[in-house]
Specification:
The complex is a heterodimer of chains A (about 425) and B (about 575). Chain A contains 3 helices and 23 strands. Chain A is mainly beta and about 425 residues long. Chain A has one domain: Outer membrane protein transport protein (OMPP1/FadL/TodX) (Porin). Chain B has 2 domains: about 300 residues, 3-Layer(aba) Sandwich (Rossmann fold); about 130 residues, no CATH class. Chain B is about 50% helix and about 10% strand. Chain B has 18 helices and 17 strands. The termini of chain B are far apart. The relative contact order of chain B is 0.13. The chains are: A mainly beta (about 425), B alpha/beta (about 575). The interface between A and B is large, with 54 and 40 residues.
């Protein structure tokens, strides 16, 4: 009893702290931590999910839920990025804030065919903080990008074989980015500027789930792209007084694209105890061409700052499995390969991205029919990657290496 | 029952242990690992590094040699990196803390507010900069502000007749820079010299100094390298070429056509310029025209007077001869004939001419001529002639008068070869930074031509460019012939002038805000010195297979802005 209270408290704390996810998770600024059972199985989920987390993984599978249910979960990201400067051969590392993405789902079975649900989760985010005197401070001191999606969803079971579902996504969040400004005052004090604002965007999430036979299931989903528009963000500068007129407090407009994600997967259940799952995601990162801030009044003599990003679309390949060693106790494991959308020369201190291997293990525990407790532990191992800064990327040359350890836990209640 | 319970517990423990083991391996495996490589000297030996150069190597900045600038010269920054790869101590002839000393008795420039805008303001200079510290040497940084290539091997450059910036730390008055450098038996040297061989000329708009002839430059470089090698035959080093100094803010800040006008201002200026030129030229033109007219008038008057005098003198001579002949007993008629004959004779003509000459020189006749000339000049006819000629001349002059139009207009610049004494600047001609003081003065009228020493004209620009090209060919060849590293600063400044990005900071050549150049528009900020350091590091690493680290240029100071 006390244990589950603690879980509730943790999940809720996670929600309140909200969702700065230290970058080190997935390609670009995507955060794939929306279900503890799925994380434990190499983050697969499009084909086998049959609880309320289908709202995220595959709206088409929600109608297959045997009962109505609620899932509350969160993860704790411990990450670190190291950077070896190609200039000074000095190693710098991030100050590693802990990130707490969360996912909460509720699904209500209206009748045997139709299930309606609501999901609140964090699909994207990034939180990176470097020391404020580090070598790349004029490219980036810190960034915090938070996104929360709210997704009302409806799912319909056409027959025992096929079900479909659709959700509307409203995403909102905030972005805050701090960079050094290369000016010093007469006492040698440094300067910096922060751009911060609130953003929102809309999209949709479609899915279908097909039971080929008793053992084999196929799932497909498409989460649409959406543009997170920052309207009337605010600039704030700390600069020498004599330069202040060049760095006014003004509004800025920006747009951060959230890419579409197309998922296709299959799961196979040879016995009651064993479930195997494999999945491919295709992520439409090429929408992220540039990071552009347009100012209402001139900042440093310019009405915009543009840093090219030139992302390309990428694949994620995942496999995972689950085995019930007792009737109520499951062990899980999985691995995924996440291809970096970042091209050579465009690695940045905000998303020092490279090809990534994720290894996960997980535990599941059923308490009777009503309660599931799932825990996962994900190790994120990004490949060491060298960057020779492209001239238009406004970034650093050097080698980045990042990694993360992400424990997470959730509770599911069926009724 | 009990056994199965124990087995079950055991299995759970095993699972937990396995779980923990996986966890431990995973946590360790996910900790990013990057190691800092250790710098090495490669085939070079940095144990005794000596830097030779001018103000740029000395750390002269903001128009003065002052302590902070010296402490972050590229030579010092480079030596710090060498120290991590077997380099030794690098001593610098530091000046006392304070404003330092530059040109004209001033210390460093600081950015200050004047009438709401930010301008470099000179501080008072510190004469203790020139106190002698040569007895505490030798110094690894042998760079001397103001030194040209041709000065390096010159004995006595440290004397009272030489350069005060060398005199303060030369080993003895008769020493040369190369002597004092070679005496330290360097294992490694850097040489960045040649800027001043064009700069003295260029920075004064060609009004002072001269561009060193390339043959003399070449001999000085050869002598310098030979002198250094005499100190250590196994010497290694790096030679940098010189940047196109004309791309420094000193030369690029003021566009040739920065006179911005609206139509009303342009009209007013044109009218003013015309009136001004007319007013200033009219007396000159009038005097010249009158003088020319008077010459003609005088010639005519003189001729007339002379004819009159000749007639009078002839009469007098004739009368004289006749009266003498009568006195000698000749008849009236005979005496008349004698007199006529004499007047016509050679002797008679000579007598008359002599007398006429004499009379023409007399004060009376001169006064007569003058008064006649004056009377003639005062006649309405001559006056009208003079006025017509004056107008004609003035019109001719005003045809070549530059006109201002709405929009951007070229500055007017002095030019002795132009009939007006000035002309419009042309594209490609450079208005020098010191002209800012003139231009920003609220009393500045664009109709006033800029002085010659504030402008580098087309042919002066060409002379400077040719000098740089010739010097750089020699510097490159010298590096190649001796197998030294070659640092292409010329190419680097070209990059900076179009925007050079370093770790998120873009450096340019814009005055004050560009980041690389200090407030004098010619010398480097600390950040600029760091960027130069990195160019040396690159070239040295590539030549000697060393692995010196570059420096984080952004961590050094740029221009300090008032709070």
């Amino acid at each position: 009893m006390t244990f589950s209270k603690y879980l509730y408290a943790t999940a809720i704390t996670g929600m309140l702290i909200a969702s700065g996810a230290p970058n080190a998770l997935c390609g670009g600024y995507q955060v794939n931590l929306q279900g503890q059972r799925q994380i434990g199985m190499g983050n697969t989920g499009v084909a086998f999910t049959n609880d309320a987390s289908s709202i995220f993984f595959n709206p088409g599978a929600m109608a297959r839920m045997p009962k109505s249910g609620v899932v509350l979960g969160g993860s704790f990201i411990f990450s670190k990025v190291k950077y070896l400067s190609a200039t000074t051969n000095t190693v710098h590392e991030t100050e590693s804030p802990m990130g707490t993405p969360f996912a909460v789902y509720a699904a209500y079975k209206i009748n045997d065919k139709i299930t309606a649900g609501l999901g609140v989760y964090t699909p994207f985010g990034s939180s990176v903080k470097w020391a404020d005197d580090w070598e790349g401070r004029f490219a980036l001191e810190s960034i915090k990008l938070q996104t929360i999606s709210v997704q009302p969803t409806i799912s319909y079971k056409i027959n025992d074989m096929i079900s479909v579902g659709a959700g509307f996504t409203y995403s909102f969040g905030s972005v805050s980015l701090t960079r050094g400004v290369p000016l010093t005052d007469s006492d040698g004090n440094p300067s910096r500027g922060t751009l911060s604002g609130r953003a929102s965007g809309i999209g949709f999430n479609l899915g279908t789930s097909i039971a080929v036979n008793e053992k084999l299931m196929i799932g497909a989903s498409f989460r649409s792209a959406s543009a997170m528009a920052v309207k009337n963000g605010e600039t704030s500068f700390t600069v020498p007084g004599s330069a202040a007129s060049n760095f006014p407090t003004t509004n800025f407009q920006a747009s951060l694209p959230l890419p579409y994600v197309l998922s296709l997967g299959a799961s196979y259940q040879p016995t009651e105890k064993l479930l195997l799952s494999a999945e491919v995601n295709y992520v439409g990162w090429s929408a992220y061409k540039e990071l552009k801030f347009e100012y209402d009044t001139l900042v440093a003599g310019s009405n915009e700052t543009v840093s090219k990003r030139n992302y390309k679309n990428s694949f994620i390949f995942k496999v995972g499995g689950e085995y019930y060693i007792t009737e109520n106790f499951a062990l899980r494991g999985g691995v995924y390969f996440d291809q970096s959308p970042v091209q050579d020369g465009y690695m940045t201190a905000e998303t020092p991205d490279s090809n990534t291997l994720g290894y996960s293990i997980g535990l599941g525990y059923r308490i009777g029919e009503a309660v599931n407790i799932d825990a996962s532990l994900l190790f994120v191992d990004r490949a060491k990657r060298e960057n020779v800064a492209a001239p238009d990327a406004n970034t650093l040359s050097g080698t980045f290496h990042a990694g993360a350890v992400i424990p997470g836990i959730s509770i599911g209640i069926n009724f | 029952m009990k056994t199965s319970y124990i087995n079950q517990k055991l299995r759970q423990w095993k699972l937990a242990a396995g779980f923990c083991a996986v966890l431990a391996v995973g946590v360790a495996g996910c900790e990013p690992k990057l190691d800092e490589p250790t710098p090495s000297a490669g085939t070079a030996d940095f144990s005794k590094y000596v830097a030779i150069g001018n103000s740029l190597t000395a750390g002269f900045s903001d128009g003065a040699l002052y302590l902070e600038g010296q402490q972050t010269s590229y030579a010092v920054l480079l030596a710090e990196q060498m120290k991590l790869a077997g380099g030794g101590e690098f001593t610098v002839p530091f000046v006392p803390a304070g404003n330092g000393a530059g040109g004209g008795g001033n210390g460093k420039l600081v950015l200050g507010r004047v009438a709401g805008s930010l301008v470099p303001i000179p501080t008072p200079g510190d004469s203790s900069v020139f106190r002698y510290i040569g007895d505490k040497g030798p110094y690894n940084n042998m760079a001397v502000p103001g030194a040209k290539a041709i000065h390096l091997p010159v004995n006595g450059y440290g004397s009272a007749l030489g350069n005060p910036f060398f005199r303060r730390f030369a080993s003895r008055p008769t020493a040369s820079i190369i002597d004092d450098a070679a005496a330290q038996k360097p294992t490694f040297f850097t040489l960045w010299i040649g800027n001043n061989d064009v700069l003295g000329y260029a920075s004064t708009g060609g009004a002072n100094d001269e561009v060193t002839a390339s043959a003399i430059f070449d001999r000085a470089i050869d002598a310098s390298i030979a002198g250094l090698k005499a100190g250590n035959s196994n010497l290694k080093g790096a030679i940098a070429n010189i940047p196109n100094i004309l791309k420094a803010p000193y030369f690029t800040t003021i566009p040739y056509n920065a006179v911005e006008l609206n139509a009303t201002q342009a009209d007013a200026l044109n009218a003013g310029l015309k009136a001004g030129v007319t007013a200033s030229a009219k007396p000159r033109v009038e005097t010249a025209v009158k003088a020319a007219v008077e010459v003609g008038v005088r010639a005519k008057v003189t001729e007339a007077v002379k004819a009159q005098v000749t007639a009078t003198v002839t009469e007098a001579v004739k009368a004289e001869v006749k009266s003498r002949a009568i006195a000698a007993g000749q008849s009236e008629a005979a005496a008349e004939a004698t007199a006529d004959a004499f007047v016509k004779s050679r002797e008679g003509q000579k007598t008359i001419e002599d007398e006429v000459e004499k009379q023409m020189k007399s004060a009376e006749v001169k006064a007569l001529i003058d008064s006649n000339v004056a009377a003639q000049m005062a006649t309405p006819e001559v006056k009208a002639l003079v006025d017509a000629k004056v107008k004609e001349e003035l019109d001719k002059l005003l045809v070549g008068l530059p006109t201002f139009a709405a929009g951007k207009n070229p500055f007017l610049i002095e030019d002795k070869r132009s009939p007006l004494g000035f002309r419009q600047a042309k594209a490609g001609e450079l208005i020098l930074l010191p002209a800012l003081v003139t231009i920003r003065d609220p009393r500045f009228v664009p109709a006033t031509p800029l002085a010659n020493n504030l402008v580098l004209s087309e042919d002066e620009v060409a002379l400077v460019n040719n000098g740089i090209t010739a010097y750089n060919a020699k510097l490159k060849k010298t590096a190649e012939d001796n197998n030294y590293a070659f640092v292409d600063i010329n190419a680097f400044l070209d990059q900076v002038s179009t925007g050079f990005s370093f770790n998120g900071v873009t450096y340019g050549t814009t005055f004050v805000t560009g980041g690389a150049f200090s407030l004098d528009g010619l010398h480097l900020t600390d950040r600029g010195a760091a960027l130069i350091t990195n160019e040396f590091v690159k070239a040295i690493n590539s030549k000697y297979k060393s692995s010196l680290n570059a420096v984080d240029a952004n961590s050094y100071k740029g221009i300090k802005f008032p709070k």
